[in-house]
Amino acid sequence: MAARRDISDEDFIAVYRKLKSAFGVARHFGISHPAVWQKRCRIERDHGIVLPQADRRKKYARGEVNHGNTVFKLTVENGCVLIGSDVHVWPGKLTTTQRAFIHFAKRLKPVAVILNGDVFDGASISRHPPIGWEHRPTVKQELDAVQDFLGALVIAAGSAVRIWTCGNHDSRFSTRIAQAVPELAGVKGVQLKDHFEQWTPTWRVDINDDIVVKHRMSGGTHADWNNVIKAGKTTVTGHDHQANVTPYRDYRGTRWGVRCGYMGESPLDQQFVNYLEAGEPSWIPAFAILTFVDGCLLWPELCVKHDDDIVSFRGETIPV
């Protein structure tokens, strides 16, 4: 679409201030997105103003996402911390890694269990439209499935501290409500944390002041390396469904960039196959275990799916 020259600056400013979206303005006037940005830059320069742009990131969408604590401080002297990311629970049978996570919560008796974001998937309230007539579970069906999984995990974890960091999929829940019915702000139930009352919600977990656990930080192939360099600490992240432990050593010692993998079954199962167009991304079903001795972190470990209903850990294959 070519830029229209009959749009006055006043009309453009009024519409932009109302919609706060370059894409929305483009649709309104029937012009291209690049044309909107060019006109916006010229108007801001000529008029000495700044046109507001809504932040469309899920956690910053309309209606602040109040996820509880900003940072949860955790001190661990001896024992282990179990960290699983990107659970993406759907109704039906639990996946191999989801069952393994429950198994390890009971077997290892961890000091803490951290669900590092995206426990909830939110398929039916995604910004991505359904592909054809594909089936997506309702929010109610997903919440029921998540609560079943968390209920079993609470029993298995015993006295462990239970923490849940917010992921971008988790944010879909309150974001959708805030966008559709902003008048419900503050009503119990409109935040996802209201439905996970046995878990402490937070954006980030700091362990012993030298480890940061967060759903996502840097992206890309070398995210683990970049996270450690930027943070100056050991980092444990999820989001990209990669699984690896990357050491980084300098004069201050050794730190690690840990990526937890994801806890689905296969990219080709019903949950992901259409979205990925039957592609095979480098997603690894896994979760992380951090072990501490006298407050010092040992080499981080991963429990990885070996086959259907079997995971591998410390040289052992374990049926789950």
Description:
The chain is 26% helix and 25% strand. The chain is of the alpha/beta class and 320 residues long. The protein has two domains: 39 residues; 262 residues, 4-Layer Sandwich (Purple Acid Phosphatase, chain A, domain 2), CATH 3.60.21.10. Strands 1, 2, 3, 4, 5, 6, 7, 8, 9, 10, 11, 12, 13 and 14 form a 14-stranded mixed β-sheet that branches. Strand 4, helix 6 and strand 5 form a beta-alpha-beta unit.
Question: Strands, helices and their partners?
Answer:
Layout: H1 9-19, H2 22-29, H3 33-47, E1 69-74, E2 79-84, H4 96-107, E3 112-116, H5 139-157, E4 161-165, H6 171-180, E5 200-207, E6 211-214, H7 223-231, E7 234-237, E8 243-250, E9 253-260, E10 286-293, E11 296-297, E12 301-307, E13 310-313, E14 316-319
Parallel strand pairs: 1-5, 2-3, 3-4, 4-5, 6-7, 7-9
Antiparallel strand pairs: 2-10, 5-6, 8-9, 10-11, 10-12, 12-13, 13-14
- Level-2 CATH architecture of the largest domain: 4-Layer Sandwich
CATH fold group of the largest domain: Purple Acid Phosphatase, chain A, domain 2
Helix segment tally: 7
How many domain regions?
2
Specify the structural class.
Answer: alpha/beta
Distance between the termini: 56 Å
Fraction of residues in helix: 25-40%
Strand content: 15-25%
Q: Characterize the main sheet.
A: 14 strands, mixed
The CATH homologous superfamily of the largest domain is termed: Metallo-dependent phosphatases
CATH class group of the largest domain? Alpha Beta
Rg estimate, integer Å: 22 Å
Which stretches of 5+ consecutive residues score pLDDT under 50?
57-66
What is the tally of beta strands?
14
What best-fitting shape do the alpha-carbon axes yield? globular
Q: For the residues shown, what is the average pLDDT?
A: 87
Helices and strands, in order, run as HHHEEHEHEHEEHEEEEEEEE
